[in-house]
Specification:
about 270 residues; alpha/beta; 2 domains; 4-stranded mixed beta sheet; two-stranded antiparallel ribbon; 9 helices; 6 strands; about 50% helix
Length: about 270
């Protein structure tokens, strides 16, 4: 049986590579591909995705492609083989890529090196064995706070650390630790930092709700639900909806709960 496949198919959701960077490696011009992955890929196994990204990179840039997938969550990427293999006679394909799990990296070395671009990621890295997690996040915050920046840039920088750290630590712990560290700093930093943390908390909660619904009910088109969630400003309300997403018997029941809560909010604000 032969089936002709459409080369262009309309889709609701598409996977896009996080970043392609033109670089010079050992005197040769290459493309460095970086894929940031919070959790394990659910819909499409990562080897298939990485093979697709590498192929599109080769086609688009016609240069060697160095592909990397960077896993942020400590439990993610444990079973990623780091290669896509097709073993068929006369049609062999092998695409290898680097798997980087942040939790496998010694965070202290990055703090000591003072690498500005990597310090916000250090809460996700391995901390010293004799150190409590709360003390580790404190050291990460102190290192970030020591980076010379103006007030607004520093607030954004610390907010980035808080958002990333929220994958492992609870937000109240991170918020308290950061606020304690910068207590004597500018009120401008505190204002913009608080806004950044709240924005990151909202985004993380919304992503968690959508992920729970997608996994539990094999839902693909959640754009309507996402649009309603984006209109909710109250973090506590989103936390309640995240619990509801874990317990609701069906997607339809969750949508009904969401509609009722939106109506209550609308009446309360009128």
């Amino acid at each position: 049986m032969i089936e002709v496949l459409e080369t262009e198919q309309p889709t609701v959701k598409s996977n896009r590579a996080d970043s392609f960077i033109r670089a010079n490696v050992h005197g040769k011009e290459v493309i460095v591909h970086l894929e940031m992955q919070t959790h394990d890929s659910r819909e499409v196994p990562m080897p298939y995705r990485m093979a697709g990204y590498a192929g599109r990179g080769i086609e688009s840039f016609q240069l060697p492609v160095y592909s990397h997938v960077i896993y942020l969550h400590p439990r993610a990427g444990r079973t990623d083989p780091g290669e896509y293999i097709q073993e068929m006679q006369d049609y062999e394909i092998r695409i290898r890529y680097k798997v980087i799990r942040l939790y496998d990296l010694e965070g202290s070395s990055f703090l000591e090196a003072g690498m500005k671009g990597l310090i916000p990621f250090t809460p996700l890295m391995k901390h010293p064995e004799n150190m409590e997690p709360k003390e580790w996040i404190r050291q990460c915050v102190e290192a970030a706070n020591a980076v010379p920046q103006d007030d607004i840039a520093k607030a954004d920088y610390l907010a980035d650390l808080a958002i990333l750290g929220g994958l492992v630590f609870d937000y109240p712990t991170i918020r308290e630790t950061i606020m304690e560290t910068i207590m004597q700093e500018s009120s401008v930093i505190q204002h913009f930092l608080q806004q950044g943390i709240e924005r990151g908390t909202r985004e993380s909660l919304i992503e968690g709700i959508l992920e729970n619904l997608e996994v539990r009910f094999n839902a693909r088109d959640l754009q309507t639900v996402a649009s309603v969630l984006e209109r909710i400003d109250a973090v506590q309300h989103l936390r309640q909806l995240r619990r509801e997403a874990l317990q609701t018997p069906s997607l339809e029941a969750f949508e009904q709960t969401l509609s009722l809560s939106e109506a209550v909010d609308a009446n309360g604000s009128s």
